[in-house]
Amino acid sequence: MNPTMIPSERRSSMKTITTHAHPRIGLLGNPSDLYGGRVLGFTFSGFMAQVQLDPCERIELHGSDEILHCSAQAPLAAELSASAGRGGADLLAAAVKRLMAAHPELEAKACGFSMRFETDIPRQAGLSGSSGIIVAALRALGRHFGIDLGPEELALLAQDAETKELGLVAGPQDRVLQAHRGLLAMDFSGSTPQVQRLDPNLLPPLLLAWDPEPGQSSGDVHAGVLDRWKAGDELVRQVMQELPELVVEGVAALQAGDHAQLVSLMDRNFELRRSVFDIAPRDQDIVTLGRDFGAGAKLCGSGGSAVFTHPDPAVLSRLAQVLSQAGWSGLFPQVAGAEI
């Protein structure tokens, strides 16, 4: 591939762009988002996926163990398709390809750039680490090309990057949460997600715990249940109809300050999920431990992390100590809002 050179005067005017995305916690309703349901969730601080985009004479996508090199000439998407991405470079390539597919006019004026990422979001812990990299990459690319990517378009492009480019089985909640940011009640029953922003101060005390060892890919977790749903499995269909109702009740409980009801709803969410998904023994153990303390407990995503709530913060502090002794990492999550 012969790189297209950028005139020196243009390179000097281009600046480094840095963007980020936060992980998310599914509080109620997940995984019904994959089935046109509802989810109550929030993005939280403490971790982030960060992308840096710099001027470059060609296009370079830096993964953790490789670099994809492409010319800055059309057809860029075809060149990226011919590259075997690994170690995160495939996530960056998927973001570039979906932006080009949505805005084909960019192919004619594509200019070089170097893009790399750093992330401390726990890997394969059900906290949306991969989608965070893609969302941050799309934010950086939008700024680079001078495109105002609103949260709706940003979430859709990120969703297509994961499902259409990478072939993953994924519902929309992760991308919608990371694109909009904050505490959100989301309805996926229509053609366009409906987003209700809620005051984070409505949340009761919460504790997040995750396994330091990477778990199973979320796409692998979802694939079997999705096949059953497509085949008309009655139990899966019933569960995916009941999970969204928990979100409606959960929003009402938050607005009423009824934290005891939220405990009950989180427990119900986990039981519904367990009725159709195989729960890893370690995930089951941590949920059971939380319940022994009287806390509401459920998985944040596909496994590897759990969220707990209890009206008394002291109870959660004691639970955190016990979880730490059992080898789990933890923090008290704070909602990350709409700041960039």
What can you see in these coordinates?
The structure is a single chain. The strands form 3 sheets. The protein has a 5-stranded mixed sheet. It has a 4-stranded antiparallel sheet with strand order 2-3-8-9. A 4-stranded antiparallel sheet has the order 11-12-10-13. The chain is globular. It is α+β, with helices and mostly antiparallel strands. It starts with 7 loop residues before the first helix and ends in a 9-residue tail after the last strand. The N terminus is likely disordered. The protein has 12 helices and 13 strands. Helix 3 crosses helix 5 and helix 3 packs across helix 6. Strand 11 and strand 12 form a beta hairpin.
SSE map:
Blueprint: H1 8-13, E1 17-21, E2 24-28, E3 38-43, E4 49-55, E5 59-62, E6 67-70, H2 76-81, H3 89-102, H4 105-108, E7 113-119, H5 129-145, H6 151-165, H7 173-180, E8 183-187, E9 194-198, E10 206-210, H8 218-230, H9 234-256, H10 259-276, H11 281-292, E11 296-299, E12 305-309, H12 313-325, E13 329-331
Parallel strand pairs: 5-7
Antiparallel strand pairs: 1-4, 2-3, 3-8, 4-7, 5-6, 8-9, 10-12, 10-13, 11-12
Helix pairs in contact: 3-5, 3-6, 5-6, 6-7, 9-10
Q: Which characteristics define this entry?
A:
340 residues; alpha+beta; Ribosomal Protein S5, domain 2; Alpha-Beta Plaits; 2 domains; five-stranded mixed beta sheet; four-stranded antiparallel beta sheet
